[in-house]
Structures are given as C-alpha cells and as structure tokens.
User: Fold this.
Amino acid sequence: MNKIILTGKAASGKDHLRKILEGRGFIYGISYTTRPRRNNEKDGNDYYFISDQEFKDKINSNFWYEWSIFNGWYYGTSKEQFNDKCNLFIMTPIGISNINTIDRNMCTVIYLDIPINERMNRLKSRFMPGDSLDRRLIEDEKDFEIFKDFDLRITDPNF
Assistant:
C-alpha cells in the first residue's frame, strides 16, 4: 500500500493538509504520544494520549513500527497502523529515518517548510501546556537542521 507521510515544523499546516487528504479518502494513522493534550484535541482523534510508562511497555512488547522522542515526548506509529490499516501519517524526521528501505520506497514524504514568521503567528494563538514558543522553535530547528529525506517540499503557507 502506497503511503503519504507529512512532516514539518510546528504550525506548518500538517493537520490542515491531513484533513484535506482525509476528505479525499486517505486513512490517517493516528500517532500515539506522551505529550500533554492541547485544549482542542481529542484522544483517539488527534492523537492517542498515553503515559510514558504505557509507551515504554509498548516498546518492550514490539508494538511500534517506528517511534521517537521529539521535544522531550514520545511519539509513535503502531505496526498494525503502518502495515495494514492506514495510508496517511504525520511523522518527525527521526520517525521517517526509522522506516525501512523497502517501505520508504512506497512512501511519498511531503515536507511543509513554511516560513518562520508565518509559523510564529500561528503558534502565538495556540495554548501549549508544558511548552513555550521559543523552545518549540529552537527544537524544530535542531530536528530539521539536516533533514533531506522528502519527495515534495511545500513552502507556500497558503497551499
């Protein structure tokens, strides 16, 4: 099954594009995370919110297709989602690097590389429990510093 993987820094429009693609029949693989839930997020819709211990237990039981630590929180995609159920994902560069070569050849990675001023304006309107705007921007720059494993790069914030 061919897959689309969306990636980008905070407030680059990943969820916006995900919803467009879902409206066209793509099946989104909801990521698991240990980060705090934002006010507008729903468990099982935006993410599966689980504890650090639950995440680590799933690591030990070989549950994950890929997982990573990003901004101090765990994120992951289950084997069942990636192999059998879904064809649309949001991943970090670290998560993408964990995709095996055969599967990567069946994926189209879309990198939303939106200008920082636009992303800052979007981030200022978000409530981010346990996080700050400055820290997000710094961590994103580190995470994407050498990222090149994408097939399509979108730089227009009005895509």
Summary: The chain has a mean pLDDT of 93. Helices lie at 14-22, 52-60, 79-85, 93-97, 101-104, 116-124, 133-144. The chain has one domain: 3-154. The radius of gyration is 15 Å.
